[in-house]
Design a protein that fits this description.
Structural class: mainly alpha
Low-confidence stretches: none
CATH class of the largest domain: Mainly Alpha
Organism: Bacillus thuringiensis Bt18247
Protein name: HTH cro/C1-type domain-containing protein
CATH architecture of the largest domain: Orthogonal Bundle
Number of domains: 2
Number of helices: 7
CATH superfamily of the largest domain: lambda repressor-like DNA-binding domains
GO molecular function: DNA binding
Pfam families: HTH_3
Distance between the termini: 63 Å
Radius of gyration: 17 Å
Number of strands: 0
Mean pLDDT: 89
Largest sheet: none
CATH topology of the largest domain: 434 Repressor (Amino-terminal Domain)
Keywords: DNA-binding
Order of helices and strands: HHHHHHH
Strand content: under 5%
Shape: elongated
Helix content: 55-70%
Length: about 120
């Protein structure tokens, strides 16, 4: 039997630029489980498929081999959302300390902008 789910999940992981460990950490499962899923030895849970769909902006139906359309019902992202996704993807690749620093700075900037707006 063809391992369509595993192949698609591996394709998604590689397109995101993640190692198996980084991908596992991001979706909160073990690295061996990623390996088992990609090799077809295990089937991912619905929750795992949902997490992968959310981080990759790819439909669950595509991941599960039920559709060949990666984003059949996708709503186009606005320019701001595309910009934010770009920076989120960059921040995700930072080490934990740098991620925390970046998030604190972003929160501070948004708080300052909120204060400016509501003067």
């Amino acid at each position: 039997m063809e391992n369509i789910i595993g192949k698609r999940i591996k394709e998604i992981r590689l397109s995101l630029g993640y190692s198996q460990q980084q991908f596992a950490d991001h979706i909160k499962i073990s690295k061996p489980m990623i390996s088992y899923i990609e090799s077809g030895k295990k089937t991912p849970s619905r929750e795992t498929v949902s997490k992968i769909a959310n981080i990759s902006n790819i439909s669950s139906d595509y991941i599960m081999g039920l559709s060949n359309d990666k984003q059949p019902d996708a709503i186009p992202l606005s320019e701001v959302q595309l910009d934010l996704k770009y920076y989120i993807d960059k921040i995700e690749k930072f080490d934990d300390e740098t991620k925390d620093f970046a998030i604190k700075k972003i929160k501070a900037l948004i708080s300052a902008l909120d204060l400016e707006i509501y003067k």
